[in-house]
Amino acid sequence: MVDDREAAEIVAEAAGEICEVVVTGPDLDWLAALTRSLIEDRLAACGQHIASIRSVYRWQGRIEDETEARVALHTRLSLVPAILERVLREHPYEVPCVLAIPVLSANPAYTQWVLAETQDPQG
């Protein structure tokens, strides 16, 4: 029988195979098209969009205050390099925001769904 601690370790181990990749972009339409292409190519299982965020940052010596959109992609940790390569190739920004955030724990059924909906880069 598996005790609570062992169950938590099993869940954490499976969750460790997935991550959330945050990408910001100029607008929701551009990000939605990127998300759709990543899902079609099985690089991400889904993307959850926020249509409008306010980004304040320093760029080339000036403080910028812009409206952007944001997506949280759910994917395999092993697919992050391919996602990063795609974003860097297609993104209109010179230095796009792409952050891969590890998942420490997750619903095991959701983790399995993410793994099933993405390609295994090893085969």
Q: What does this 3D model show about the protein?
A:
This protein has 123 residues and is α+β, with helices and mostly antiparallel strands. It has a single domain, classed as 2-Layer Sandwich (Alpha-Beta Plaits), CATH 3.30.70. The chain has 4 helices and 4 strands; from the N terminus they run αβαββαβα. The protein has helices at 4-15, 28-40, 80-90, 108-117, and strands at 18-25, 46-59, 62-76, 98-102. The protein has a 4-stranded antiparallel β-sheet. β2 (46-59) and β3 form a beta hairpin. The radius of gyration is 16 Å and the shape is globular. The termini are far apart.
Q: What is the fold-level CATH name, i.e. the topology?
A: Alpha-Beta Plaits
Biggest β-sheet: strands ordered side by side in the sheet: 2-3-1-4
Taken from the alpha-carbon principal axes, the silhouette is globular
Total count of strands: 4
CATH architecture: 2-Layer Sandwich
- The run of helices and strands is HEHEEHEH
Low-confidence stretches: none
- Helicity range: 25-40%
Annotation field: number of helices: 4
For the termini, the CA-CA separation is 33 Å
Q: How many strands, what sense, and barrel or not for the largest sheet?
A: 4 strands, antiparallel
Percent of residues in β-strands: 25-35%
State Rg: 16 Å
- CATH top level assignment: Alpha Beta
What class do helices, strands and sheet pairing give?
A: alpha+beta
